[in-house]
């Protein structure tokens, strides 16, 4: 081997390896130190603005049916009654066993501090930043949480999928994996890489993990649909050292034919939650909290194309054996026109960050000052809603 073939030369020729450096953890610091806490946290970003009024339908509100003509308005339209006032969209009916077991819950009428402009890009950025504005913010709230905990290493948290997960951006080490990442490398090339990197323990360990993750991904996911592949991989990591996993599910921007588009998106969400439950197994499931959150809700009234437009107040989905489910949390604002935000949207009565903060407090033991001072600066967490067992 030529003495001029050093690490830089090897990396510059990495195309020969067939590995996308952007999609694999090849350059991520790796450690297999003991995990700092026992609970598992999964955060799913629902990109596009999920219509919380269609997912968790307030069929007990007298105005609801008239406002939602053309959509599945309550049990008469196929929704599954939850508590006499709220009903669950029929596409999520496979999750009803979780509801009855207390492993599924919802928080209604929540939003980020974002108001009025209703831009997906700004709304998602603010959701992932976890702040009241984006000025000077370069990290995400999950990463800020990790910086406050002892013993955090790269495998403690995973950002999964092709899209950027800004809520995990920041100084704390985070591993990345995409279902399309593949370390296709011959045994000879792998041996060459091993020789080149043997004098650098950190890079040598990173190569070893990249090889392992590529194999793990293939074994864990097979030929399943992408969202199930992601859930399967997340579950496999959560059975081990990983304590935090985050990924996104798209398809929630339902301006047209919401009856079809939302059903497909909800089916993906339901599949994902059930794959996580089955993948982690009963013991880990009891320690797991899943938070599914979106950048904003949608208009109360249906538009002229059978859809809904960008709104304000929405809903978040909670699942997992650690969740105190079987109930819809939040302060219901009402649907009378005078009760709406700008007379068009569900009025937000809670900050979507507060339930996430209380869940993190219960899982990790972080105190309230750390959560509403550093993780979510400026947040008023309010009283403890008791979301975890």
UniProtKB/TrEMBL annotation:
InterPro entries with a match to the protein in the record: DUF1501, TAT_signal
UniProt cross-references to PROSITE patterns, sorted A to Z: TAT
Keywords for the protein's UniProt record, in alphabetical order: Signal
Keyword Transport tagged: no
Residues in the signal sequence: 1-22
PANTHER family assigned to the protein according to its UniProt record, in alphabetical order: BLL7424 PROTEIN (PTHR43737), DUF1501 DOMAIN-CONTAINING PROTEIN (PTHR43737:SF1)
Protein name: DUF1501 domain-containing protein
Organism of this sequence: Sedimentitalea arenosa
